[in-house]
Amino acid sequence: MDWSPAHVPDQSGRIALVTGASGGIGLETSRMLAAHGAHVLLACRSVERGRAAAARIGGSAEVVRLDLASLDSVREAAAWVRGRHERLDLLVNNAGVMFPSYRRTEDGFEAHFGVNHLGHFALTGLLLDLMTAVPDSRVVTVASLAHRAGFGAVDEDAARSSTGRRSPTAYGRSKLANLLFARELQRRLATAGAATASLAAHPGLSPTGLWHGDAPRLLRPVVAAGLRWLAQPANRAALPSLRAATDPHVAGGAPLGPSKLFESRGTPAPARSSRASRDMAAQSRLWELSEGLTGVRYAFPSAPAAPDPSGAVCPVTGARG
Ligand SMILES: NC(=O)c1ccc[n+]([C@@H]2O[C@H](COP(=O)([O-])OP(=O)(O)OC[C@H]3O[C@@H](n4cnc5c(N)ncnc54)[C@H](OP(=O)(O)O)[C@@H]3O)[C@@H](O)[C@H]2O)c1
Description:
alpha/beta; Rossmann fold; 10 helices; 8 strands; binds NADP nicotinamide-adenine-dinucleotide phosphate
């Protein structure tokens, strides 16, 4: 049976933070989470646009200023959340740019990599301890079919390149980084015995503000045709994120995406991802690189003690370092 928003369990009492909630897929994800009872923190670059989004959503929502192109702003947003909330159930790393008007972020990172990956890497690390003891808490990172265009190593040179502004490869590399990060985070959470799962989702194709970037001229007709024939509206494109955030039956690490027409549209289902995204050595290298570049080191709970095979020692339960 196809999954639909009717399958979303009651989210009352759950606190969700969605990045890039001012428009497109983030707005729709927030709207549906709020409609199912969640209190939603709309993390937006512009507080004004965030307030307008909150008015459209109508449920229980707050706006927090977050510019992922600035690590200072990421730290301020995390501090704001920590000052108001003791726990976080859902973190949806949704915001994204493609062919933006600027080359580098405030901290000197290539714009796609800095906003789409490093900003979210830092935000997640700064909020994770609000989540790791919360039952069925989840980090959902929004990737893209374009991760397959992410050729070349994700290394420090690529992270600081000034030539990626109109490059499909640079966008693809940032989306590949989203998948590498989601899988590595899931492995580390599982090893630590945390209550949090990390999942990835991709929306297929949707005619949102993402496509208003400064695309290379040769790509524009392809994009126009793709959007005309394959795209689905943002409220449907948000369903893989919504399912990843709420379906108790999906496992951590698994990517979800639309099920039809080469995963461009349709109901959300387990999705395919490239061999490069499943490369465990690359996942681990990206993690080290991201910690180094952002200065954010993740604090995982201590792993639960392995049961003593002799049965002589009682395992300690509920201890989290
Ligand atoms: N639409 C598609 O076909 C498609 C396909 C594959 C993957 N995706 C992914 O889906 C996600 C959502 O994109 P969308 O299609 O909904 O695009 P969108 O309508 O352009 O929304 C992007 C959101 O990200 C926010 N954002 C941009 N730069 C930011 C920054 N520096 N700090 C904080 N927020 C920032 C935007 O805020 P402002 O309002 O301030 O600009 C906006 O709310 C992205 O990760 C994208 O890569 C989309």
